[in-house]
Amino acid sequence: MDSSLKKLTAFMKKTKSIGASNPAAQLLPELDKLNLLKFLDEIAANICDVKLKASEIPDLVNFVVQLSCRYQQFPELLLNELKKILPYKKLDKIENPAKYKIDLKFLGELVLNGVFAKPGVDLLGNCLGFLVQTDTQEFTHVPLLLPFCRPTLFDFVGLVPFSEKSRGFDQDELEELTTTLLTENNRRAVKS
């Protein structure tokens, strides 16, 4: 693996500008060639600072999965960075609702893809709890929850959406669709 400062610096600049003009998928070939061990914390910070669109999340999730497979310490570093930017305590404030919505979806996808284990599920549960508990009167957080819940409700909670119930899934089909990454305890943590 290459550890030359010039190539590593160029790669780090690319991680700061991940997005439509610089998709994360373009960085995958360089992962095999570069020794990024000393820059993992900076990569985690860059990933958390990036302003994504919902359509760019799958590419970035794939990039993070590949990076996590190569460097076992990366998920912990990324989770620590996510804890810094995601409000999940009662006194926290949501600075940028649009970014929070995308970051929540990103966190959910990382959990579903096996990047984070229990600490990631706990953070996700805390974030969802924060949204529900801090908005009991005006329901201004509903637009932040819906984009997360629509595609991942079944995966995290095991509830079939009304639109899908009309298809008449039987119990065997539902068990086949259920992800094995989340235990019943994980699902209960997200539900509560």
UniProtKB/TrEMBL annotation:
Protein name: Uncharacterized protein
Superkingdom of origin organism: Eukaryota
